[in-house]
Amino acid sequence: MSGNPNDIKDQLLMAMLPHVLFDGWSQDTLAAACQDLGPDTPEASLVFPGGIRDVAKHFGDYMDRAMLAELAKLNIEKLPIRERIATGVRTRLMLLAPHREAIRRLLTYLSLPGNQFTGLRITMKTVDAIWYAAGDTATDFNYYTKRGLLAGVYGSTILYWLSDNSDDFVETDAFLARRINEVLQIPKLQSKITKRLERLTRPLRRFKRPAF
Description:
The chain is mainly alpha-helical. The chain has helices at residues 5-23, 27-37, 44-47, 52-72, 81-96, 100-110, 116-133, 141-162, 170-201. 73% of the residues lie in helices and 0% in strands.
């Protein structure tokens, strides 16, 4: 077995996923994965000292790395921004597809009291990776706005995808397109509102506050 800590984590994670279908994201599942890999496997508590939460975070990291590797092959910088984002989410779903039931179990685990922050952290790292792959270099308030909006799109699309039985998830693809279109309208609406407010308040600027 490789001495690279990430390699060991990856192997243990992959050995664990088949057991998740029966025992969920649990210490029993992690113990079964260690047993499957053989006696040379380090103790689970050494590989994942934070327990199942650490495993969940590593699953997100593992999928982020795989997603970025796939996106690097596609030259998405040539696409319009909405297509770059859509391609990022579609690529993520493609990688998650073999583990759909494990994802369902993971969301159940992350919804438990005390685990919600872990779920939020995983989601925010993923949407940050998608924006990074899309070429986003924002460092101001837009950085957080873009990631917050995409987190909503990504989260709702995952939930839709989990119940989608259409061929090649075409219904999920249509849902994703609608959601992206909706959030891309938000900055335009904000700009229109700002311009309208400026027009409405312009006459008031002629009046100065009295000096006291």
